[in-house]
Fold this sequence. Notes:
Layout: E1 4-5, H1 8-16, E2 21-23, E3 30-34, H2 38-48, E4 57-59, H3 75-84, E5 89-94, H4 101-104, E6 109-113, H5 118-126, E7 131-132, H6 147-154, E8 161-162, E9 174-179, E10 182-187, H7 193-200, E11 204-205, H8 208-211, E12 229-232, H9 235-241, E13 247-251, E14 261-266, H10 273-288, E15 294-298, H11 305-316
Helix pairs in contact: 1-5, 10-11
The structure holds adenosine monophosphate (AMP) and magnesium ion (MG).
Amino acid sequence: MSIISKNIDKAVHILSNEDVVAIPTETVYGLAGNIYSDQAIRKIFEVKQRPLFNPLIVHLHSVEQLQGIVSHIPEKAQRLADAFWPGSLTLVLKKNLSIPDVITAGKDTVGVRIPNHPVTLALLKKLPFPLAAPSANPFNRISPTSALHVEGYFKDTIQMVLDGGDCQNGLESTIIGFEDDEPVLYRLGSISVEEIESVIGEIRVKNKEENTPSAPGMLAKHYAPRTKTYLVENVEGFIKEHPNKAIGVLSFTEAFSAANIKYVEILSSSGDLKVAAANLYSSLHKLDHLDLDMIVAQKFPEFGLGNSINDRLDRATK
Length: 318
Ligand code: AMP
Ligand code: MG
């Protein structure tokens, strides 16, 4: 029997009984539990096989709820919240003492956001507690952007996926932390650096090495297909170098063809980066299920969401 359902009250019931439910958001599907339930939070880590040093993002339905969650809101954090919430921006702020350590991996900070999805906002409004929700994929696998992706991963381990259709943005949230009240970019995501900088001016970007301990979403190996994947500028050259392989191509706009190309996924034939980002994970899921020898992904232009897409593709090759 399918675990996919549109019944919000059923999700309320399961979550109120300290169990987990997969929820739709505009970024990717999340695996959600009551932030104050040790049982629910431990189940999230167990089901995902996620290491405990990886903190979870807390999902709220309103800015007012921040009061009980964080102890200090820097001025630039307030401006970002005003500009982008509800939306695909996670702010890492000093936590309130009541937030359990298992949510924050023992840190004194907590990641928070208001997702921009009508179904999950309706769910959050019916619950007397916020939801902790990392992406609803096993650790190191491709993030889910449809209810079917989640069901494929977890049909034997969770009771319910709340169906909210395909995720409109399709990439994880952009994560910004604060060090001495100054913003620092921890993870590229659905909102581009250019959009962020149009609100608060130039932002410091943490490089991967510097970042690993504080934002494990930046772990080098993350979001990976099981088929060996390559990220290249010159797809045609790569295809010629591997004549005896069955290859799947992840292309931005072009329909590549050659004898050894078994499948091409075009992310946006009109060259729209937002559309390409929305299609990225479902195309990777598709290619990963085709029994190919290798997947070759074309490098994206280095601006706007192109940088976020390249970041995920780079990790998919690790
Ligand atoms: P996921 O929801 O699976 O994309 O993972 C959530 C990600 O949010 C983590 O892997 C971290 O990168 C980030 N995160 C959440 N809370 C914190 C925090 N307190 N400090 C730094 N990063 C955080
Ligand atoms: Mg994740």
